[in-house]
Amino acid sequence: MVSLSNHERTDDLVLGIDVGGTKILSAVIDPEGNKVSEYLTATRASEGFEEVLKSIVESGFGALVKAGKGFSEVRATGLAVAGLIDAKDGIVRASPNLPGWRNVPLRDRVEAAFGNRVFLINDAHAAAAGEHYFGAGRGCRDFVYITVSTGIGGGLILNNELYEGANGFGGEVGHMVIDDKGPLCNCGNRGCWEMLASGKALEREALRLIESGSNTTIPLFCHPDPEQSEGEGSQSHPIKCITAKAIHAAALAGDPLAVELIQRTGYYLGVGLSNIINIFNPELIVIGGGLSNIGDMLFKPAIEEAHRRAFKQSFDLVKFTLAELGAYSGVIGAAAYARQQLGRPKE
Questions:
Q1: Are strands 284-288 and 161-163 parallel, antiparallel or unpaired?
Q2: Taking CA 41 as the corner, what is the angle to CA 68 and CA 135, rounded to the nearest 5 degrees?
Q3: How far apart are CA 244 and CA 144, in angstroms?
Q4: Residue 286 domain-assigned?
Q5: pLDDT in tens, 294-341
Q6: pLDDT tens digits for 258-298?
Q7: Strands (E), the chain
Q8: Model pTM greater than 0.90?
Q9: Is residue 112 assigned to a domain?
Q10: Are 251 and 316 in a shared domain?
Q11: Cα 126 from Cα 333, distance rounded (Å)
Q12: What are the φ and ψ backbone dihedral angles of 117, each rounded to 5 degrees?
């Protein structure tokens, strides 16, 4: 475990970098968790590791330039990446956002480019650390951070410590099996939580029902990719462009199928939450990610189902809240993690 107590506060700046599937966000962070500067660039994941590495360097350098600093003027870099992250050895074992990445020594390559110490961390772990230090989890000793977006990720703060697991792979709550006969997940299992309660799951079910002939206005709220060529999905009802945002918009307009789809997603979200509550007995569950923007339409059925399934004593204790740091939780948490790790000898 990584202790999150007695967080050393100095005047030193730290660079945080959050590597997503499409974008890389870098920010220079002060000891109070404030952004001194930020820089956003494209990941270019489809172009391979070397191009992604160039994007990481570009993003980090861009944030430093905007802050008027050089790499020698920041104490360290925290680097957050989705997937199975071996933080100890600095290796990305696998990442759902970075096709073809297997056992990539990312920390060492970024250290060589930056010339300062780099600390690699899973992106959901980083977000949990960010919310613990500076967001919704401040002052809370036991809480679970869950990001509900395209997939589902998690970070655990247990007894005031970030729990990373024996080899850094802890907290993969999105791959908790909810229905062993459910949809096939990229991990190889069926019915993982993220295959039933994520944005991807919501969109998949909407598309399935529309293609089977269900009556709905959801396609009217879809906006095709403007770069899509003529004839590719340029129909008046672009069902191939269905997004969670479009489904939510249709639900707000009173579309019965859209409402049902969101409530069903909320149901499965609640099934998973009940497992989290029963296993960890947290005092707080912090929920972030793009799907959380749906709000009560999603969370009301989720909390009701969690209430129905969880141990009463544990459910009565737990509180639910939305993440406070939004899109910055990962980059701020990565910087906080790097700052905390500076006191440890390099292995």
A1: unpaired
A2: 75
A3: 24
A4: yes
A5: 999 999 999 999 999 999 999 999 999 999 999 999 999 999 999 999
A6: 999 999 999 999 999 999 999 999 999 999 999 999 999 99
A7: 2-3, 13-19, 23-29, 35-42, 74-81, 84-86, 91-94, 102-104, 117-122, 143-148, 152-158, 161-163, 284-288, 319-322
A8: no
A9: yes
A10: yes
A11: 4
A12: -70, 140
